[in-house]
Design a protein that fits this description.
Layout: H1 19-23, H2 28-43, H3 56-75, H4 77-81, H5 90-115, H6 121-129, H7 146-167, H8 173-201, H9 205-224, H10 236-241, H11 249-267, E1 277-279, E2 284-286, H12 292-302, H13 306-319, H14 321-335
Antiparallel strand pairs: 1-2
Helix pairs in contact: 3-5, 5-8, 7-8, 7-9, 7-11, 8-9
The structure holds Phenylacetyl coenzyme A.
Length: 340
C-alpha cells in the first residue's frame, strides 16, 4: 500500500537489522574480502553506505560520534531557546525561532543517520536522558544576556561549521549527506549571530560592553568544542584512518582562531587572550590553550548547566509521551486493512 507522505513520519520504524549481525556467521576468508573492498572504497574516496560491509569498530565509532552530535543539536536548542520570549523585536524573535527549530531538525537528521547503523532512537535517547551519553561541552554554559545569543550564533555556530565542513566529506554516506544540509543552515545561524554582535558592537557604549562581556565568556568554551588537543585525543587516529574526520582537533581549532580574530577586530572588540600573536612562520596565530581541566570537568557532568540541561530534556521527553503514543496508535490504525 502506498501511504501519503506525511503518514510515513507517524509510523514507528522497524528496528534496523545491521549487517554486522549477518557477518558474524561469515567465514574469515570472506570477511577478508569484505575488508579489502571496504579499504578500497575508502582509498578511492567512495562513500560507505548502510548496506555495505563495515568493520565493527568503524560502525561503533560512527554511532558514538553521530549520536553525540545529534544530542548536541537537541541540547543545543536550550541555551538560545531561553531567549525566545525575551527577544527585543519581532524580527529578532522570528529569526531566533527559526534558528532554534533548525537545530531540532539537525538532531533528527543525525539520529536517522545513526539509526542506519543499527542502533535505535530509543537506545540513543535513553543514553542521553540518563546522562550516559556525551554531548558538546559548550551547551553547559549559561546564556546570561541578549549578547550571548549573538555570541552563540557567531562563535558556536562558527566553530560548528568549521568542524562540519570537513564532515561533509566524511566516509559514511548518510552522515556526509546530512552534513551538507546542516552546513547550509549553520551558515545562516552564524550570520544572524554576527549581525547581532555588529549591532551591539557599533551601538551604545553599554551595548558594546555587553558584546565584549559575551565574547570574554564564550571564547575559551568555544575553543573547547573542537575536542581535546591532538596529543590527548584517543579517537582521532581511527577517525582519520577511516576518513570519518578529515582534519584533527588542533588543525580545526587553529583555523577557527585565524578566521575569527579578523572578525573580532572588525567589531572593535578584544580577544580575551594576552598571548594572542600572529606567527609569520606558521602563517597563523599563537594563542593560549583553554583550561583542559575545566573541559574534563564539564564533560564529566559537572559544568554550570549540565544538570539543568538534562532536567529540561527529561521534562520535554516526558511531556511529549502523549504525542508518541498518539502517533503510534494512528500508525497502527493506518496499517490495518480498510474494511470493505
Ligand atoms: N564536548 O578523541 P576525541 C553545534 C569527547 S554541534 C563533549 O578527540 P573525537 C551546532 C569525545 O566524545 C556541536 N565531549 O573525540 C549548534 C571523546 O569521548 P568518548 C557538536 C567532547 O570524537 C550550534 C573524548 O572527549 N559537534 O554546535 C568534546 O575524535 C548552536 C575524546 O575526544 C559535533 O558533534 C566536546 N567539545 O572528536 C547547535 C561534531 N570534544 O566519545 C545549537 C561531530 C571531545 O570517547 C546551537 N563530532 N569530546 O567517550 C566531532 O567532530 C568529534 O566527535 C569531536 C571530538 C571533534 C567533537
Amino acid at each position: 500500500m502506498q501511504l501519503p507522505f506525511h503518514h510515513l513520519f507517524l509510523i514507528k520504524r522497524p528496528k534496523t537489522v545491521s549487517l554486522h549481525i549477518i557477518t558474524q556467521h561469515v567465514p574469515a576468508m570472506e570477511i577478508n574480502n569484505f575488508e579489502n573492498l571496504f579499504e578500497a572504497k575508502l582509498a578511492k574516496n567512495e562513500m560507505i553506505e548502510p548496506k555495505d560491509w563495515m568493520p565493527e569498530n568503524y560502525r561503533k565509532h560512527l554511532i558514538r560520534q553521530i549520536s553525540q552530535h545529534a544530542h548536541s543539536e537537541i541540547v543545543g536548542m536550550l541555551p538560545e531557546g531561553n531567549w525566545i520570549t525575551r527577544a527585543p523585536s519581532l524580527r529578532s524573535k522570528l529569526v531566533l525561532l527559526a534558528k532554534v527549530q533548525d537545530e531540532g531538525g539537525h538532531g533528527l537528521y543525525l539520529y536517522t543517520a545513526a539509526e542506519s547503523l543499527g542502533t535505535s532512537r530509543d537506545e540513543m535517547l535513553d543514553a542521553l536522558l540518563t546522562g550516559k551519553a556525551k554531548y558538546s561541552s559548550i551547551f553547559n554554559y549559561p546564556t546570561l544576556t541578549w549578547a550571548d545569543v549573538g555570541a552563540v550564533g557567531w562563535l558556536v555556530d562558527g566553530a560548528a561549521i568549521m568542524n562540519q565542513v570537513m564532515l561533509q566529506r566524511s566516509s559514511y554516506g548518510p552522515y556526509s549527506r546530512a552534513m551538507v544540509r546542516i552546513c547550509k543552515e549553520e551558515s545562516f545561524h552564524q550570520r544572524q549571530g554576527y549581525e547581532l554582535m555588529t549591532k551591539l558592537a557599533f551601538g551604545t557604549p553599554e551595548q558594546k560592553a555587553m558584546a565584549q562581556d559575551a565574547l570574554n565568556r564564550w571564547w575559551y568554551p568555544t575553543l573547547m568544542m573542537f575536542g581535546p588537543p591532538d596529543r590527548e585525543s584517543p579517537n582521532s587516529e581511527n577517525a582519520i584512518k577511516w576518513r570519518i574526520k578529515r582534519e584533527t582537533n588542533d588543525q580545526l581549532r587553529q583555523r577557527f582562531v585565524n578566521q575569527t580574530v579578523k572578525q573580532v577586530e572588525y567589531l572593535g572588540l578584544t580577544v580575551p587572550d594576552a598571548n594572542l600573536k600572529w606567527n609569520e612562520a606558521k602563517n597563523g596565530y599563537d594563542f593560549s590553550e583553554p583550561d583542559w581541566a575545566e573541559f574534563k570537568n564539564v564533560i564529566k557532568g559537572n559544568g554550570i548547566c549540565n544538570k539543568e540541561r538534562l532536567t529540561a530534556r527529561n521534562k520535554a521527553h516526558n511531556d511529549g509521551a502523549w504525542v508518541r503514543e498518539a502517533a503510534a496508535a494512528y500508525g497502527k490504525k493506518l496499517s490495518q486493512p480498510i474494511a470493505a
